[in-house]
Design a protein that fits this description.
The protein is of the alpha/beta class. It has helices at about 15-20, 65-85, 105-110, 130-135, 140-150, 150-160, 170-175, 175-180, 230-245, 270-275, 290-300, 315-325, 335, 355-365, 370-385, 390-405; strands at about 1-5, 30-35, 45-50, 95-100, 115-120, 165, 185, 205, 210, 215-225, 250-255, 285, 305, 330, 345-350. It starts with a strand and ends in a 5-residue tail after the last helix. The relative contact order is 0.11.
């Protein structure tokens, strides 16, 4: 079987299934990849095809069409790049493409006989969804139009696909009912052999070496932004530092906005929080982006891992933290509630109530060993329902069934 993976930042969500296929040469799979020319990550693909948009969207385009034009330009770039391969005889049996950015828009035009299994993460809504969670008044009509039109490339993907995949039930629920029967809910899983508890774990942070004996809490996100509750977390850190002189806080992530809106004053959220609160910087550690080994070590020693999110795509890091045996103190929002039951395998806190979050974390720090059963249950949740050893064979079966046309 010849598989073409398409993702702007490949391997991304396909990293685990790629490893599964690479470790099983007897499956007889040839793996090809298509990704942006700016992506420098190395993969095990037999060949990687790079695509580069030839221009940015025009400045005078209708604002509601900006996202659509960017997607079309990206789809055109991939079409052009793959056309050369097609003319040289390349034809995939199945294409696995990540939806949303437009790269997969024209794949069925180029390869009409190839099956298309599309990976979906999010469908945009202006009401009762992610953006409204942070607002105290409805979007204006122009904003509602812009949000609705962001779904245009996704709708084209839904119409063209042979089948779809979505990692969580909550995320799948955001897609229109008419398409849901054609989307399989299947997460690509957590490596529970890698993300596991380790009693003697040690992590070097600056001049410190932290172990489970230290009073450490953690926060991890791609960007420091409202969507992942960074302002609320930093306010909580300030309050905790007043109470707990031995507390250290470790933050992984980039000083940028990956999801949602930037601040209107041009400052980053990190810059604004550091200006707003007088932190003890000797006990507040910004580590930027780190290898998975550092992240895993932090999850093995942390007293509490704080994960806040609006109703949006659930971060893989939360599942990996649970797999490593961390106690997750998570926001009481739909994506988190799908995995965490308060008081059983983690703790839920109100997203905006920093006093309540502070009190909950303080109670954990004062009664650390009492929460060990929750830590064990968190890992068991991942082992039972999200372990790669169980999910990747299901993923492979899904790929095969879509490729041979037997999937219903």
């Amino acid at each position: 079987m010849r598989i073409l993976f398409v993702h702007n930042n490949f391997p991304a969500q396909y990293r685990r299934i790629m490893a599964y296929l690479d470790e099983r040469p007897k499956l007889g799979v040839e793996v090809y990849a298509a990704t942006l020319d700016t992506n420098q990550q190395k993969t095990q693909a037999k060949k990687t095809i790079k695509y580069k948009p030839h221009r940015e969207p025009r400045e005078n385009i209708h604002p509601a069409l900006l996202y659509t034009e960017r997607a079309v330009i990206q789809g055109q770039a991939l079409y052009s790049a793959l056309l050369k391969s097609k003319q040289a005889g390349f034809k995939p049996d199945i294409i696995l493409a990540h939806s949303g950015w437009g790269a997969g828009l024209f794949l069925k035009d180029l390869f009409p006989d190839s099956k298309l299994l599309t990976y979906y993460e999010w469908y945009y809504h202006s009401i009762n969804s992610d953006g409204m969670f942070l607002r105290d008044k409805p979007y204006d009509p122009n904003a509602q139009m812009r949000i609705r039109m962001k779904n245009t490339p996704i709708l084209h993907d839904l119409a063209a696909m042979d089948h779809g995949q979505c990692p969580t039930a909550f995320q799948k629920s955001k897609f229109p009912d008419i398409f849901q029967s054609g989307i399989t809910q299947l997460h690509d899983g957590v490596d529970t052999k890698f993300f596991k508890p380790k009693a003697n774990a040690r992590v070097k942070v600056g001049d410190h070496i932290f172990t489970k004996a230290d009073e450490v809490i953690t926060y991890v996100a791609r960007g420091m932004e409202e969507y992942r509750g960074f302002p609320q977390f930093m306010e909580t850190v300030y309050k905790l530092q007043q109470r707990r002189p031995n507390l250290h806080v470790v933050i992984l992530g980039s000083n940028r906005v990956a999801y949602g809106n930037k601040r209107s004053d041009g400052k980053s959220f990190k810059e604004a929080m550091l200006e707003t609160y007088d932190f003890d910087m000797d006990r507040l550690h910004f580590m930027g982006l780190q290898p998975l080994g550092v992240f895993c070590g932090l999850m093995q020693i942390t007293r509490a891992h704080i994960y806040l999110t609006v109703p949006f795509v659930l971060s893989w890091s939360m599942l990996e933290a649970m797999g490593a045996g961390a106690l997750v103190v998570g926001s009481d929002t739909e994506p988190v509630r799908e995995l965490i039951t308060d008081g059983e395998n983690g703790l839920l806190v109100p997203f905006f109530d920093t006093d309540a979050i502070t009190d909950k974390i303080s109670h954990v720090l004062d009664n650390n060993e009492e929460y060990d059963p929750l830590r064990k249950n968190a890992r068991q949740t991942i082992k039972d329902s999200y372990a790669v050893k169980d999910l990747l064979p299901q993923y492979w079966n899904l790929i095969k069934s879509v490729a041979n046309g037997s999937h219903i």
